Amino acid sequence: MSVVALVVSAAPADAATEPTAPPPSPGEVIPGQRTDTPSLVRGIREQAPDKGSAAAAARAYLDGEQGRYRIPDAERDLVPAGTTTADGRETVRLQQRHRGVPVLGGQYVVRMERRGGERVVTGTSGKYFTELSTGTTPEVGEALAVERAVDAVLTELGDRNFAASLPREAETPLEGTARGLVVLPTGSGVLTRHVTVHGTDPATGEPVRREVYVDARAGYPVLQYSGIKTFGAPGTTAGQSGAGAGQSGAAGAGGPRQVVAAEQGTGIRLDGATVALDIERDDTRGLYVLRDRTRLPADNVLSTWDARGKWVTDVGGQWPEGLQEFGSPTPGFGTEATDSGAVDAHWAAGQVYDYFKGKHGRDSLDGRGMTVNSLVGVTDYGQSYVNAFWDGQKMVYGNGDAEYRPLSAAMDVVGHEMTHGVIEHSANLVYAGQSGALNEAIADYFGNAVEADVYGIPATDPDSGLLGERLCRTKTPRECALRDLADGRTTAKSFLGVGFAVDNGGVHLNSTIVGGALWDAREDLGAEVMDKVVYKALTEYLTPLDGFTEARAAVLAAAQDLQLPAADQKVLQRAFTAHGIVPGWESALGVDSDLLLDRINTSGTSLGAGGGWWAAAKSNEDGSEPYSVWAGRGDGEGSVKLMSPNDGRYHVNPATDGKTVVWQAVGADGVDILSRPLAGGPVKKLWHGRNPGSSVDVDGDLVAFDYVTYGGRRAVAHLSIKDPANVETIGGGTYHRAWAPSVSHGKVAYQERRRVRAEYAVSTRVIDVATGENRAIQVASDGIGLGPTAINGTHVFWLLDDDATDGKRALRRAALDGSGVVDLSPETGPNALNAYDVTVSEDRVTVGSHVADAPLSNESAPKLYQFAASGAPDDPATRKGRVSCNRGEQSSAAAVAGGQVVWLDSTTGITDVVTRPRPAGRCD
Q: For FRET with 117, which of 310, 361, 381, 604 sits at 20 to 30 Å CA-CA?
């Protein structure tokens, strides 16, 4: 699991070590985690210094209360990030900087009342990290950081594992944009270069936007998460969507209000209802257009744009050329405006604006009257696009398909996506792990709240908690809905720990834990009360890295500030408790596996195993140090051994055969392949290159690995530990790529793509190192996906994707001479798997698989399945079933010996190296 402790991990905040509590003070003080600054102070009334602006007064106040807040110099280290004002209250957000460099998620909030020219502080909350001491001079340049970031995203997308998704030589599917230096607040801090990687997924064609943080001293990507905010998670019906960065904004600003005489039009929604539309006559086009000037200040507008014929890759994070507002020759917008979803989008955007303005006094998404743009009719390369997203500038709605209407047809979808904009301009919750799940929970809550308000749905209606239920043409609302906040089943015991490659760390998988608690409280307390509580918690309490525990504290504090009766506050407490969000809730998540190495705090690195031993990369407890390689016995006996030097580089992707450990060491000057005997001895350098690959394997004296040449071209190398200078390389050129090596008994298996006579072919190959024979085990046409390999003394195994659209992949086996090619797990049929990784011992072969295009559930997270390595394909005994019945993600399996494997398990939200003495079999 890609985890950096205390940054955007799915790991619970309660797992951190409690700091020394601040001295007693008036009101309620909740200590922070790994910081001396409280996470929440409320119930105080303390004079703020008279410093003119609200931000200046807030910083002066913090400087004057050193005993409680322990912020050395608020004037220097806290930069104003936005102030909101309402009814004499001021909420000041302050962004932490360490030696002038912004700190990811370091935001502190000061709440004040202003009466008669004086300010009184009523509370504070957020995260200011007091233990930071890292230097801020980078040793890695922007160009290398961008290159490493793009390579890391390509690895996570999986294009290096399957040939069908490898970019052609002329293609540049992804680009990186350097965003500057950022300190990750782990331990004493990690200085990183922030890179936004954007473009198109070479396998799926979906838009990509990932935020990557590259260690500025070693050049290793220590953190990446998606910048794409979705209504439904990838793999569900309403899947991908885009997002952009947001700033906290001030409410009530934006220039003088312009009074505009409204043009009134009409249109028919997709549900058949006729609605009034605020429109405008555009004389330059001679048309009436979906442009509303009645709601927003100055020259800002609420507009709906005709994006029919535009691909989603054209519009995500950018404004496509030639786009025009949806027009009509008459004020009555006709069939085209209905069928494209334009009528729904324009009408619903106005309703959402009116809700936030009327109920909460918020002027548009940023609180300052920003323009609201909606694009409708977007396709997926001309095909159906059942999707919607907010990208920091606009809402984008797909064209739908035979069953699902355009996503703008559902008021809760429009409300959900526009609420993402509100969140980005207030708490700006980081869209990964628990903070991302909280982001989704609040977007769900207000999406449903707006729908209930507009349609007059009572909070007690059993269908009030459904999301997306109005999208379908033939399915019933419950069959159509993607989520139900009122299902009563989403508790903390349902929490699914997954890495950021899976649903961005579970942002949808886990969102209804908090969302359900909020909706239950809405049913009990009523819409008017609960909507105010949640809005106040969002805009005045929550900060970017807050998770479930902080959400409970923020909502309860907001309720107290709104002076809810004690009985109502107890209702709120019960709602969170009923959904399992109580102190220490994470400890109730059980596992059926044995712990070998806990809290590895690493990103983008796999496990190795063999000969009864395992090897893993681990950072320190808080994730602030570069990674080290450790090794231990598969039976858990004895102590783990530190194999790598502590030299500032990132030591990753280890492999072992039970005698030797081999791994990559990534630094600013490139990557080394290093080895060391398990019995002890010096570390030996075997090879040096520019950029790392993702596969390393060792058996006896033979080592094989892949690496990346300039431009992201994949190559495989193998060498002898005794004579590493005599290295053999394959691929790495414009027309010749190789990847996914594995070794056993003096042989190297790998995948290759080569152009011959203007045609490409992909093949699975085995090299006999002693004789030099290079045998093609299978040759396939270009476009067939050939994935990771595994080899033992009798067979070679690999994954194959014959049809990229079916969400399944085959596990294929052949004898080492290429004979007897069979599928142990076929690509089709009731038991077909969507395998993405493979490992083998002499007896068993184990694959990692997840269910593609499945509803969000435990079973949709990656799991491990095992087969008899030499079994017959049609023998039921060949398929041994599940390795473990743990909930959450199980990844990076490595065969120890026999049927035993080790793997990375994220069930509890913290990634550990675990094992079982034998597979679990069935998980009923």
A: 361
Q: Is residue 216 part of a domain?
A: yes
What confidence score (pLDDT) does residue 237 get?
Answer: 47
Contact predicate 821/778, CB 8 Å: yes
Residues 201 and 82 in one domain: no
Tell me what pLDDT residue 160 has: 44
Q: What is the number of other CB atoms lying within 10 angstroms of the CB of residue 409?
A: 25
The CATH number linked to 720 is: 2.130.10.150
Which of 142, 417, 586, 889 is the catalytic position? 417
Please check whether residues 93 and 174 belong to one and the same domain: no
Strand-by-strand arrangement of the 863-868 sheet:
835-840, 844-849, 863-868, 879-882
Question: Are the C-beta atoms of residues 723 and 768 closer than 8 Å to each other?
Answer: no
Q: Identify the three-state secondary structure at position 488.
A: coil
- Residue 106 near residue 127 (C-beta atoms within 8 A): yes
Residue with the two structure tokens 């075997």: 686
Does a structural domain hold residue 197? yes
Residues 6+ apart with CB under 8 A from 326: 289, 290, 304, 305, 306, 333, 337, 340, 342, 346, 376
Regarding whether 789 and 674 lie in a shared domain, the answer is yes
Q: Give the 3-state secondary structure of 513-542.
A: HHHHHHHHHHHHHCHHHHHHHHHHHHHHCC
Residue 526: count of CB within 10 angstroms of its CB: 14
Active site residue 795: no
**Are both 256 and 327 inside the same structural domain?**
yes
Q: Are residues 176 and 253 in the same domain?
A: no
Output the pLDDT for position 266. Answer: 97
Smallest Cα–Cα separation from 59: which of 42, 38, 83, 75? Answer: 75
- Report residue 853 as tokens: 């295009």
Q: Which of 194, 198, 508, 718 is labelled catalytic?
A: 508
The per-residue pLDDT for 621 is 75
Quote the domain boundaries for residue 73. 13-126
- Structural tokens at position 788: 């990771």
- Do 98 and 151 reside in the same domain of the chain? no
Radius of gyration of the chain (CA): 28
Contacts of 324 (CB under 8 A, 6+ apart): 285, 289, 305, 306
**CA–CA separation, 703 and 911 (whole Å):** 28
Please list the ranges in the chain whose pLDDT falls under 70.
1-26, 158-172, 203-204, 228, 230, 232-262, 489, 586-589, 852-856
Residue finishing a domain among 126, 153, 182:
126
Q: For position 891, what pLDDT does the model report?
A: 92
Residue 415, exposed/middle/buried by CB under 10 A (0-12, 13-18, 19+)? buried
List the structure tokens of 917: 């003495």
CATH of the domain at 527: 1.10.390.10
922 lies in some domain: no
- Check whether residue 220 and residue 155 sit in a common domain: yes
| Cα 818 from Cα 159, distance rounded (Å) | 26
**Among this protein's residues, is 508 annotated catalytic?**
yes
Residue 912 lies in a domain: no
State the Cα–Cα distance between residues 235 and 538, nearest whole angstrom: 29
Question: Does 315 lie in the same domain as 266?
Answer: yes
Q: Is 364 left (phi over 0), alpha (psi -120 to 50) or beta?
A: left
Contact 41, 28 (CB under 8 A): yes
What's the pLDDT tens digit per position in 155-195? 777 644 565 444 444 456 788 999 999 999 988 999 999 99
Of 366, 391, 426, the residue that ends a domain is 426
